[in-house]
Automatic annotation (TrEMBL):
SUPFAM superfamilies to which the protein is assigned, alphabetical: HCP-like
Name of the featured protein: Uncharacterized protein
Pfam families referenced in this protein's UniProt entry, alphabetically: Sel1
Annotated InterPro entries: Sel1-like, Sel1_AlgK, TPR-like_helical_dom_sf
PANTHER family: ERAD-ASSOCIATED E3 UBIQUITIN-PROTEIN LIGASE COMPONENT HRD3, SEL-1-LIKE PROTEIN
UniProt lineage: Eukaryota, Fungi, Fungi incertae sedis, Mucoromycota, Glomeromycotina
Family label: Belongs to the sel-1 family.
Length: 240
């Protein structure tokens, strides 16, 4: 009984919210519409997208996200980017997704002084997605420095996904440096460097996995008298 009452209450609340958002979204015209109207359009879009208080309609969700984004709503810009990226209510278009993520991440309409403090620097999810676009070359050329920049800003805002992505990039960069110095050491005849370089090739640390090169450097290291590498070489040959 209580479950049914709670369910009915939720449905009524969702319908009321939908009507409120619809009224806000349709308020005014292009010249008089303000940010509240744009945010109302974004909320209305979510209702259509998530089947909240109305029938699910992804095309209408996309249309209202577009109006919201063009009206300066950061959330609208971010969600419109998602629509283009995932083909929600429209054809997939990674370049357009990137452009709207960029607009969202940069903070949208900077002339509006009364943004919430948490949104003054831009949309945190938008910043993360923009970093993702730069990192994976989605809608733009790959650029790790820019990816690091936007991931870092999103991390400062508390985005856990950005923390993971930032960690992966930094680890990769650190591994590449480690590989570089092992290679330099190995080429100069250092048996310990040759040992560790073989290990990098074997496991793909800072470079692509290459068993043949791993074996070659293990042999060089062993021939140079590295006892640790002799053991590792025996293990390598046994497991091959």
């Amino acid at each position: 009984m209580l479950t049914r009452l709670f369910s009915n209450f939720n449905e009524n609340l969702e319908e009321k919210n939908f009507q409120k958002y619809l009224k806000s979204a349709k308020k005014g015209n292009a010249k008089t519409r303000n940010k509240l109207d744009s945010d109302g359009q974004c909320n209305l879009s979510r209702c259509y997208q998530l089947d909240s208080g109305t029938i699910k309609d992804e095309k209408k969700a996309f249309q209202w996200y577009m109006k919201s984004a063009e009206g300066g709503s950061i959330s609208g810009q971010y969600n419109l980017g998602d629509c283009y990226r995932n083909g929600i209510g429209t054809i997939k278009d990674e370049e357009k997704a990137f452009q709207w993520y960029l607009k969202s991440a940069e903070g949208g309409d900077k002339s509006i002084q009364w943004y919430l403090k948490s949104a003054e620097g831009g949309s945190i999810p938008g910043q993360y997605n923009l970093g993702d676009c730069y990192h994976n070359g989605i809608g733009t050329i790959k650029d790790e420095e820019k990816a690091l920049h936007w991931y870092s800003i999103s991390v400062e805002g508390g985005n856990s996904y950005a923390q993971t992505s930032l960690g992966k990039i930094k680890k990769t960069k650190d591994e590449e440096k480690i590989f570089h110095w092992y290679l330099k050491s190995a080429e100069e005849g250092n048996t310990d460097g040759q040992n560790k370089l073989g290990y990098c090739y074997l496991l793909g640390i800072g470079t692509t996995n290459d068993d043949e090169k791993a074996f070659q450097w293990y042999v060089k290291s062993a021939e140079g008298g590295n006892s640790d590498r002799k053991k590792a070489l025996r293990w390598y040959l046994k497991s091959s």
